[in-house]
Amino acid sequence: MPEIKLENITKHFDEGRVVAVDNISLEIKDKDYVFLLGPSGCGKTTTLRMIAGLENPTQGKVSINKKNMEGIPPEDRDMGFIFQHFEIFDHLTVWENVTFGLEVRGYEDDYIIEQATKALKLVDLYKYLDKYPSMFGNPGLQKLGIARAIATGAKILIMDEPLGSLDPKVSRVFRHQLRNLVKDLGLTAIHVTHNQSEAMAIADKIILMRAGKILQIGTPYEMYENPNSIFVANFLGEMNFLQGFVLKTLEEEKIEIWLRLGGPRLNCNNPENKFKLDDNIVVAFRCEDVYLFPKNYNFEDSKYDWSKMQFFKAKLNASRFIGETKRFYLELDNQDKFESIKSGTFEEDFNIGEELTIAIHQDDIRVFRMPEDLFNELSLT
Amino acid sequence: MNITKKYGKFKALSNISLEIKDKEYFIVLGPTGAGKTSLLKVIAGLVSPDEGEILFDGMRINEKQPGERNLGFMFENYALFPHMNIVDNISYSSRVHARNPESTQKIVQQFLMMTLLMGRDDALPKELSGGMKQRVALSRALMNLEQTKLLILDEPLKALDAGLRNSLRRELLNMAKSSILDLTVIHVTNDQREAMMVADRIALINQGKVVQVGTPHEIYYHPRNLFVAYFMSEINYFEGKCVKNSKRKGELHKISTKSDKFLKQIQEDSLLLPIDIGIDKIFTVYTDHQKFETIDDGDNILLVVRANHFKIREGNRLKDKKNAFIGLIKRRKFMGVFYRFEVLVKINNKEKRLIISIPATTEIHQKFQEGSNVTVYFPEELGIIFKHPGKDEINRIMSLV
Amino acid sequence: MMQKEESAAEKPKTKKTELSLTLKTERYFSKPKYRKILDGITISFFVLVIIGPIINIFSTILLNIPSISHDVFNDELIGALQWYNILESLSVSFTIASVAVIFDIIIALPISIILTRYNFRGKKFLDAIVDLPMAVPTSALGFSVLLFWRLFGINPGYTLIIFGHIVFTFPYIVRNMKIVLEKSSVLYEDAARTLGAPGITVFRTITLPMMKEGIIAGAILAFTRSLGETGATIILSGLVETAPILIVGFRRQLEIPSASFLAGILITVSILLLFSIKIFTRKVKFPVKRIWPETEKYLSKKPFRYFRDGFSLIVLLIVILIPSFFIITQITEGNLAEELFLAKDYKWAYLYTSFIDSISVGVLAVFINLIFGIPLAMIITKRNWGKFITILDTILDVPIAIPSAALGFAIFLFWGPAGLNFFQPGFYMILFVHISFTFPYMVRPIISVLEQSNEGVEEAARTLGASNITVFRKITLPNIKQGIIAGSIMVFTRSLGETGATIVVMGRVRTIPVLIVDWVEANVFASAIFASLLVILFSAFLIFLLRSIRKKGDVIVA
Fold it and tell me: What is the pTM of this model?
């Protein structure tokens, strides 16, 4: 029952000049597939390396199965590690690579053969067992890396950008296979990446980091639907951000806001009456929550309940077909721009330059307090 | 401006011909090692082709030095001169061409403003973040554009974080399409999503050959072969037969007012082909005239359906729908815009896993749980038919290694 | 495709056997305290063999100030003549080294570019032949140069020394330039070309600045090698005395105070030079901002390029390659059989024992340097000791930088009868000296492969459950094999070719290079030619061995 717990972990480099990880605590449950997600330099890899024992925390405690890991070197932690650059032993054959971890642990020959065969068959490399890895391309090398890590029978799998060195197409195919493998073997997995779509596609749980701190922890659904900050909202998927201020406070924890420079007015939720009159705010909504209708669409005829919909007008600047989705580029009267994504077969077709009616469900509009530096919150360096 | 290249036997490329139109955003797409970078180097004159011609506006330029071709080249990993600060990097071409130092100074300052690097004139490339380097490299390439306006981009976004890639991709497109610059862009990438997001036209390249050239629509809806179909998105494929003695002129489909123009066109120009893929129902799929003619009754065919072209319903009401399977949801995963399902169905009494992505809505979230029985189906105009390429070819393409 | 796991294989089956004895021992000795003990031993070796003698020579000078001031400055008979001799020899040495290095750099720039950026038939052969003089004992090379220029009436003296020094320092310079050129991506040059820069401009503003490190590394190495060379210089010098020759002379006449004084000066100057060049060159910048478009475009035209390449190839051929191997054509000179085998003084027997001694010294030096070199290389690349590592890394180059005759003399003073009295001049002292001055040649290549080798692989092995020493044996060692072999061959060839340091401590033992010098001085040319050819062939074999295991530009020696 592997359970990993980090308590108040801090890591400094260069004698304290660089704070890579700043007092974080987290818990990883048995058989969870957890992601450490964040932009370059956010401390996610350092965190992962501390769990694996490749770095020692400056402060704080890492425990696995309630056992303190202090002073226990990586070779005694019983984890499988998958690396971004594979770190395959070039001078050993495929078979020798996979059996390495079993040999150095001194297992019986029968067991070694059984485990290595099973692992190689899982990644479909069994037919290459006496070849040298130099014959493989990146996808083959990473399959071997995976086989090597799972062959030891370790119940915890640690992965540092395991798909980062693969072609985008290959990595999109691999990601689902990786998840299936982890689930089938019942492993606890920790996976580091900067790629949000990879995290959304595989994770049971996402830990989003920035500048050495944890911003939010949750399932992909929770994080996507209820981001706790502008940065999280922006990082986890494409989102529109428009600026405005609170025009009126309404009953039932609602507010009316007015987008900047005479843009449209919208009614939004105001949980716990967080926002007061005249507060400067940023509204955020997902591209796929933006519905488009012809300018004079008659909503009354429809069978749907439109009561919670917010309507306003916008001009269609351009549209692009992107395969799974179609993307519409729109502009408000105040020249603020936003986008809409439609998926599936595209039911409407509009002309460029046309004025459209936009509909967004009240619950899909999130309101954030205006940060001191909005640009910085939205920039991913 | 037109560029035509024909050549054979150049290391990584064999007999490629392409025509790129003026002011076009042209994407060269392909997996690693397909010969994309070699192609760019030939266009830029960094290597010369063994055979064939490169034409700019109808003029042969094979013998011209790279510097005389008047193009901006942005290299993979940017190739910013490590020993020069960013101003010297950006202004390098001006100094080489002895342009007026004062106006150069002005333009460089404008570029610095655009790249959000004002006041950092003395910064060396190694001090910059990935995004900044990308912008400096782009500025340096743009500085070299004079009369001709061809910008060549080799994997311009590859070295960046995924999140940053989105925003810089948008900047790149805005710049290319801006009327002030009037650029023709050739952009190499191995990311099919990136290609779809920015391209006017795409050339898909594999193993040194052009597999298909077309607009994103054409490539997505009319892939020339299984490789193209698979490269552009997640797919399901089914082996089957064209039903014997059933080949007939398909009726022109009644055009649905709800579909977009391109789908209308598919339906208008196509004929209905009945096929048997090993379940007890005959499937029907629209295919264009040309393909229709080449497939005979009883021929082995391959049916490809993109994951996002399936639709999903509760329960086992197979009869209601054309082209439908009944199955069980094995896995479900929320991915943001989409839900991705793995649905187990029976074909020829063997279990097969279908990959299906459905736009995420609250309804989907509540109704379709792992373990529930579902019916999945796809519209007739969205099935893609190929002649069966042989088992080995299918395995080779699907394994990607 | 990853397949679904068969559920039948789910049965847990974790029978564990005892760890094998090897693994158990390795696990035991992987404890941090044993690592500390090994580090301690390695560093003490380094200090005793390399730093000790050098410090000792300064203390000797300090202790002997009265006798030095008497012998050097105030001799009853000759007054300060010794001092003038010392000054004269220093100025000769520095002039020769500077001229040779500057000439080398001018020729090596186009040659290194031809060897890395062009493709032509016979490139590999040219590459090998340019490297070859590095492995040949300098006395044999010097002798060959002497025989060649004799044809044109150039006799031993100033000019001939310069010709000789150009020959044996040239490979060091080309090699280091080639390594940086191979490492630096062609992409930067391509980028400059697409921006419109003609050939010369690309070279001047992009290639040259990126070659800086290599040029400097090569120049330092070549300069110090020239400064310290003895064997070839003795043969080519005639009456001219360079500093190392003067030391050898003082030592022969047992003028210990003068010798230690001069050795001290040479060591000080060399070390100062090494450091000042290292510090100074970091600040040197090439004038990349100014561009003269018209002139440079004109000079980039094909005829100029052909002229430049052709000219440097011809100079390479006439000044370096032909003189190096001219000796091969002289095999018929004199009556070899009579001189070597039939004469009463048993020259062949001397040749045989010298050959055995030379090889034994070489092999033992390789062996001992391996034992201490690998751990030291690991310390320098892996330990996190901050400044101490930087200091260690810099001191490591000192034996390369200081003239070997001076180093040999320092060791003679420290370990010989005058100092700790551990060794008498003879075989073991030669061995000791050779270990000392070849040590960096062993450690540098290993450091360089260690730095390039990927630490991730070692981490992977550790996460798979291997202890530190197991990781070293199974992963690190196979990965740095190339560096170890390269280092071993470098050590062996340097040991085989050394003259100056050997003369200072050899007693009655003769190594091959010394024997060649002796025979040339005694005018027994046929035997000298035969001995030279013997070592040239042997070295050629070694250098081809080295090249066959070396990947593209992986080892930088300085």
Answer: 0.85
What is the three-class DSSP state of A265? strand
- Which of A137, A221, A344 minimises the CB distance to B334? A221
Write the CATH number of the domain with boundaries B234-399. 2.40.50.100
pLDDT tens digits along A226-247: 999 999 999 988 889 999 999 9
* Chain A, chain C: beta-carbon pairs less than 8 Å apart: 110
In angstroms, the CA C442 to CA B31 distance is 43
Q: Domain locations in chain C? A: 22-285+300-549
pLDDT of C1 strictly over 70:
no
Out of B77, B79, B97, closest to residue C196 by CB: B97
Under DSSP, is residue A286 helix (H, G, I), strand (E, B) or coil?
A: strand
Other CB atoms within a 10 A radius of the CB of residue C376 amount to 23
User: What ranges do the domains of chain B cover?
Assistant: 3-226, 234-399
Interface contact flag, B95 C289, Cβ < 8 Å: yes
Cα separation values, A49 from A54, A55, B22, Å: 5, 6, 51
CB contact under 8 A, A349 and B400: no
Starting at the earlier edge strand, list the strands of the sheet with A67-68.
Answer: A18-28, A4-13, A59-64, A67-68
More confident residue, C38 or C545: C38
Whether the Cβ atoms of residue B165 and residue C215 lie closer than 8 Å to each other: no
Distance from CA of B63 to the nearest CA of A (A): 35
Position A78 scores a pLDDT of 87
CA distance C144 to C512: 15
* ipTM (interface pTM): 0.88
Average pLDDT over residues C157-161: 90
Amino acid at A176: H
Q: Do C194 and B67 touch (CB under 8 A)?
A: yes
Which chains share 3+ C-beta pairs under 8 angstroms with B? A, C
**Can you name the CATH fold of C22-285+300-549?**
MetI-like fold (1.10.3720)
User: pLDDT (tens digit, 9 = 90+) per residue, C366-405?
Assistant: 999 999 999 999 999 988 888 888 888 888 888 888 888 8
In A50-109, the residues whose Cβ lies within 8 Å of chain B are none
For chain A, say whether C32 makes contact (Cβ under 8 Å). Answer: no
CB contact under 8 A, C196 and B144: yes
Contact call for residues C215 and C105 (beta carbons, < 8 A)? yes
| Whether C251 contacts C259, CB under 8 Å | yes
Q: Which residues of A touch C5 (CB under 8 A)?
A: 118, 122, 181, 184-185
Optimal mutation site among C1, C2, C4, C480, interface A, most CBs of chain A within 10 A: C2
Contact C193 B398 (CB under 8 A): no
Sign of the dihedral through C-alpha C452, C456, C459, C461 = negative
- Report the residue from B129, B162, B231 with minimal CB separation from A196: B162
Given pLDDT bands bounded at 50, 70 and 90, which one contains residue C553?
A: very low
How far apart, in whole angstroms, are the C-alpha atoms of residue C30 and residue C24? 10
By Cβ distance, the residue of B32, B333, B336 closest to A224 is B336
| Percent of chain C predicted with pLDDT > 70 | 95
Question: Shortest CA distance to A44 belongs to which of A235, A209, A223?
Answer: A209
Looking at CATH, the fold of the domain delimited by B3-226 is given as Rossmann fold (3.40.50)
Nearest by CB: A169 against B31, B131, B217: B31
- Annotate B15-48 with DSSP letters as a single string: SEEEEE-TT-EEEEE--TTSSHHHHHHHHHTSS-
Burial of A252 (0-12, 13-18, 19+ CB in 10 A): exposed
Q: Which domains does chain A have, with CATH numbers?
A: 4-232 (3.40.50.300), 238-378 (no CATH)
Closest-CA residue in chain B for A184? Answer: B331
Distance CA B108, CA B94 (A): 10
